[in-house]
Amino acid sequence: MMSERLDSKTLQNAKVRLPAFDRTELRPGIVHIGLGAFFRAHGVIYNDDAIETDPATHDGWGIIGVSLRSPSQRDRLEPQDGLYTTIERSASGDRPRIMGSLLQSIVAPEVPERLIGILADSGIRIVTITVTEKGYCHDPATGRLNPAHPDIVHDVEHRERPVSLPGFLVAALKLRRDRGIAPFTIVSCDNLPSNGKLLRGLVCDFAALSDDSLAAWIESNAPFPSTMVDRIVPAATDNDLLLARDLTGLRDLAPVIHEPFRQWVIEDIFGAAGRPAWERAGAQFVGDVEPFELMKLRMLNGTHSALAYLGFLSGIQTISQTVADPVFRDFLAGLWRNEIIPTVPAPDGTDLAAYADQLLERYSNPAISHRTAQIAMDGSQKLPQRILGTVRDRLKAGQPWERLALIIAAFITYAGGTDEKGQAIDVKDPLANQLKADGQASPATHVRHVISIGSIFGADLGRDERFIKTVEAAYRTLLTHGAHAAVSATNQT
Ligand code: CS2
């Protein structure tokens, strides 16, 4: 028999844990931009947990979700009244639960003026953001706004109908200033270094393109806390829809799958309008997030990208399969111990070797199928903060960095567009055209060409002969021996 679809009316029939608060009492206080799986498996869960601890004081913290591009999330969530299942997966089983604080989902390009109106409403006190690295329209090497980005060029011309993140934030903040409403607190939850500071710079740069006084008002009034977010959330598959139906007894077209671990470290500089008590759900409010971000970007995301490129090129589909291979486990251990950890100042009370052990355990979770091809996406936007900062520190210290060089070479090979069997790779990257290998160019010419892309490698590495030669040598090893043998050989160094 066909199951009923999950929505407000069928919710009570679900065979799993339900929201322990009355959704009809909840009013929106948060707009979330970037309604992907990550936020639904992370921020919404913290928010539901916080509301559950004291629904009466949290009735103003419902969420309106916004997609900046695709209607797919809205199309799945609106027929379900914003309800969806989260499934925590590990070797010890599945723990399903239905989330309740996402009230509404909208698609920005369909209703840009309405979205600006919602953001300008005084009831909205927080804007949280997960638009991924490329959504910031910045130059990853410098962290500054890229005024030549097509979306920024568009938004300068069409301020009332923007398409970019800075465009929407600035249009809404302008209305709030004109109406005498305090700015909302803007919480970037993307894997970028000093994400709050970075976004403040981009928003102020964009505002200053037309209105210096608006830029100054934002700069002195809008809080942009930095955050470190962490939870592994692979893209959902058709099997996950079946799993959600089996567990809940209802049809859910928008489930999210995630690992048990979660972490959210937030700089405690919210505006006077306050925030939900996310700390009751385990969020850590601290004075300085940067050490946590640096640790996570270099130790987790850096090694994730390493496993993604080298694993993919070795023909391995998922992270857990990659780390099941002893050659890759040795590589990871050496990468953490010898090349990454020496560059990371430990945040308060954190034992970095134990953190690495915990990461390996998380990567090994056999119930989470996190595809190497998914993590390999958008490398041009990820490499600077995940790998290249570490390399700069190693160069400065005059210390070896062979494993990091192999990762950069693997990125260049992957983004070149052909795998070891000669098959085309479906490279998803905003710079895919520039990264594509031209079959005619020699390896040395190709490596130099990629390293000359300033938005990835910056002016310094782009001209550093030691850097170029080391990456070139690693690239040749990859081409000659293949990724797996190259990893194995690098383990001997
Ligand atoms: C991953 C991250 O896709 C990627 O690039 O490295 O999404 C990673 O899973 C999360 O940052 C974990 O918190």
Automatic annotation (TrEMBL):
Pfam families per record: Mannitol_dh, Mannitol_dh_C
GO terms, molecular function: oxidoreductase activity, acting on the CH-OH group of donors, NAD or NADP as acceptor
Keyword Repeat attributed: no
Domain annotation Mannitol dehydrogenase C-terminal: ranges: 288-478
Presence of the UniProt keyword Oxidoreductase in the record: yes
Residue ranges of domain Mannitol dehydrogenase N-terminal in the record: 29-279
Region forming the signal peptide: none
Keywords (A to Z) from UniProt: Oxidoreductase
Cross-referenced InterPro entries: 6-PGluconate_DH-like_C_sf, 6PGD_dom2, Mannitol_DH, Mannitol_DH/Oxidoreductase, Mannitol_DH_C, Mannitol_DH_N, NAD(P)-bd_dom_sf
Protein name: Mannitol dehydrogenase family protein
Organism ancestry: Bacteria, Pseudomonadati, Pseudomonadota, Alphaproteobacteria, Hyphomicrobiales
